[in-house]
Each structure stands twice: as C-alpha cells, then as structure tokens.
Amino acid sequence: MEFTRMRVREAVASASAPARGVGRGRDGGGRAEGGVVALRGVLGHLAEWTRWQVAAVRSAVTGEPPVPGGRPPDYPEGFAGVASFDVWESMVQDAMAVRSLGELARDLSQVLDDLARWVAGGDDALWGRVVPEPRRFGRPGPARPLADLLAGWRGPLAHVEWHLDRLAGEPPPPRGAPDDEEGMWVVDRCPLHP
Fold first, then answer.
1. Contact 185, 191 (CB under 8 A)
2. Dist. CA 168–CA 165, nearest whole Å
3. Which of 22, 168, 188, 189 could form a cystine bridge with 184, CB 3.0-4.6 A?
4. CA nearest 104: which of 16, 59, 45, 34?
5. DSSP helix/strand/coil, 18
6. Topology adopted by domain 2-16+27-189
7. Which CB contacts under 8 angstroms, 24+ apart, belong to 147-156?
C-alpha cells in the first residue's frame, strides 16, 4: 500500500513541477497543462471510487454499514442512488472540480491511510473471510478473500496503479472479455477506461 501512496505523491510532484523546454503547453503557473488537468480528473475519480470500493469491501467483510474514508465532497441529493457509470462519474467530476490538485491528492491519500489503519487492526478471522466482490453497479461478483478484494488485480490498489500507469504513458494490459469473470480487471468496469 505504501508503494501506491508513494506513486500518488510522485505523480502530483511531477505534474506540479515546472515544465521544461520550449513549445510545451503551460498554464499561468508554468506547469505542463495537460498533465495537471488529467491528473486532477484521475485523482478525483480515484478518491471517490476507492472510497466507495474500500467502504463496500469493509462492509461486506464486517457486516457493518459502509463507512466512507477520506473527505468526501458534498454531493447533490440522489448521488448514492445513481445507476449509471457515466452519470456517477459526471457527478464525481463536478463535485471534485472545486478542489485543488493538492486537496484531491490528500483526499485519496487519506482514503488509503484509512484503509491501512483498518487492515493493520485486522485479525486472522477477518483475513479468513471470503465474500462476494462488491460492485458499484450490478450484482456482486464472485466470492474472494479479503486480501484479493483489497490488493488483488481487481482491488482499489490495482485501480490506482492502473490509472497512474496510463498517466505515465505505459500501455494498458489487454482488456478482459465481458463474460470472463476471472480475466477482468476492476478497470475493465471503470468509467474512465479509455
């Protein structure tokens, strides 16, 4: 988890650093404009998606109501009941638009910190739980161990890493087939997936 948090910090530092060279797009602060804009959109998305996913997994494992981590923005009434990826993502981006790059990064970091504290306090019984994979839209997925739900290739850490890799220009892995539960990544269902 620390590696993921480090990558978020590095992405923010890189996007915030003055752009070098002639002919690059810059905003008034001398930053590489496209990188900051893209990172802001991704961090807002990741903060909210990770907040939801971690709360949903925690709720599925403990049987308690979901407890969102971090600092959720004020969403309009009806946000919790949105039934479409596109509408959900649009509402997330609208709510996050008033936040600075630093605020977005701190929100995501706080969500990850909250997850780390919860995981650190888990006992063997917690780690032994196998529960259906929570999904924001649609029916739950196949039952998986807690470690897989959090740190596996379908979990929130993989989702953060996937988006940071795309921002860094790394090519995406091949998409899973829609009917192949075992071959799908969480990002195959992501509203920001290209």
1. no
2. 5
3. 188
4. 45
5. strand
6. Four Helix Bundle (Hemerythrin (Met), subunit A) (1.20.120)
7. 149/57, 149/60, 149/61, 150/54, 150/57, 150/115, 150/119, 151/1, 153/185, 153/186, 154/184, 154/185, 154/186, 155/53, 155/57, 155/186, 156/49, 156/50, 156/53, 156/54, 156/115, 156/186
4-34 pLDDT tens trace: 889 999 999 888 776 554 334 434 444 455 6
Q: Which CA distances in Å does 146 have to 56, 127, 150, 154, 183? A: 12, 6, 6, 11, 19
- Residue 68 burial (C-beta neighbours within 10 Å; 0-12, 13-18, 19+): middle
The closest alpha carbon to 3, from 152, 161, 165, belongs to: 161
Structural domain boundaries of the chain? 2-16+27-189
Cα–Cα distances in angstroms (integers) from residue 112 to residues 8, 50, 101, 108, 116, in the given order: 11, 8, 17, 6, 6
Given a contact cutoff of 8 angstroms between Cβ atoms, the answer to whether 118 and 61 are in contact is no
d(CA 167, CA 101): 15
